[in-house]
Description:
CATH superfamily of the largest domain: D-Amino Acid Oxidase, subunit A, domain 2
Strand order of the largest sheet: 5-6-4-14-15-16-13-17
Structural class: alpha/beta
Largest sheet: 8 strands, mixed
Low-confidence stretches: none
CATH architecture of the largest domain: 2-Layer Sandwich
CATH class of the largest domain: Alpha Beta
Mean pLDDT: 94
Order of helices and strands: EHEEHEHEHEEHEEEEEHEEEEHEEHEHH
Helix content: 25-40%
CATH topology of the largest domain: D-Amino Acid Oxidase, Chain A, domain 2
Oligomer: single chain
Number of strands: 19
Amino acid sequence: MNSQPHVVVIGGGATGAAVAHDLALRGARVTVVERGEVTSGTTGRHHGLLHSGARYAVKDPESARECIQENMILRKIAPDEFELNNGLFVAITDEDMEYRPRFLEGLAECGIPHKEISPREALEREPNLNPELKAAVEVPDGTMDAMRLPLRFFATAQKNGAIVKTYTEVIDLLMDGKTVSGVRVRDHVTGKEYEIGADIVVNAAGAWADKIAAMAGVHIPIKPSPGVLVAVWGRWSNMVINRMTMAGDGDIVLPQRALSIIGTSSWLVDDPDRLEMKPEHIDLMYEYGSMLIPGIKHAKMRAAWAAARPLIGESDGDDTGRELSRTFKCFDHKDRDGIEGFVTIAGGKATTARAMAEATADVVARKLGIDVPCTTREVVLLPHTAYYRRRM
C-alpha cells in the first residue's frame, strides 16, 4: 500500500496545474482529472497578459498587490517564458486625465513600479498610438502564451510523480457520510466510468467550481463572467497598451507574436458552458481599441472568442461583473460547511495561479499532517515541452 496521502485535483487549468505542482513537491500523491484537454477551459482562452496589477490599483488593490508579487516570482521560476515588453497606460480624454492622480496614487500604494513618460516619448516608442494622447505611465506588464505556462507547472508536477488524466470528467463526488472520499469519473475516450479514491479532493474547476461543489451539497459564490476578445492581424504595438481609466470594455491592446489582442467585454451568465458570442461586443472591441490605436479600426480580424472568468461574490444587481474583485479565495469545506475532505480554490487570474496553489496546498497539507513548506517561489519550472515528453 502507498503510504503517501492521495489528493485528487479537479480541473486541468492554470490553477489545477499549479496546485498539482505544489502538492507533488510536498510529497503528496496527486491525480489531476480534466474533462477535456488541459487548459481547454478559461485558461486557454485568456488574452495572455502577465499582469503588473496596475489595472486594479485603484478599485481592487488586493488583486493589484497579488498580481505584482506573482509577476516578479513568475519571471524567476519560468525564465524565457514571457515577453517582458512592459505596458503603457495612456490617457486619451480629459476624463482619463482626471483619473490619473488616483491611478498614480494607487500604483504607489500597491508597490507597483511605474514611470511617467511624456506623450512625445510614448509616441516615439509606439508610433501607432493615438496622437491625441495626453499622458502615459509605464508599468511592468508582459505577455505570455496562455497554454505554455500551465504546461510548465504540469510538466514539473509529472516529474515529481503527479498523474494527469485528460478527457476524464467528474460526474459525482464519493461521499462517506459528511466526508468526500474520492470522485466518480467518466473517461470520454473509452466511455468507461470508474471511481478514484482520495484523502482530499481539491476543486479547482474555475468557472465550473460551483457545479462541482453542488455534488457535495455546498455552494460556492462563483459568478461566471464571460468577456469577448478579438485578435486582429498585425502587431500594432510592442508594449501592452492600456487605457488610463477604471477597467472597462476594450481598454487593452496586447501584442501576441504577429497579432494584436483587443479585450475585453464583460457580462454574467449562470452556465459557463453556454457562452453567447455577442456580435455587438466584437464591434465594441474595434471601437474602443481604435481609441488607443487608431489603425486597429480597419485591421482584419483573425479570430474572436469568449472566456468565462470565475469571479467570486454576489453581483449586487450589476449584470456586467465589473464590480467583483479579481482576487481569489480558498474554502475548506470542513470549516465552512461541515464537509470533510473537500477544498475549493476559486477566483484569481492566470498571473496569480501559483499563489492560489500555495494557499490551497497550505490548507491541504495542514489537513493531511504534511509538515513540508511551500517551495514553489524558488523551484524553476521545466520547459512546457517536457509535459508532452512524459506523456509519450
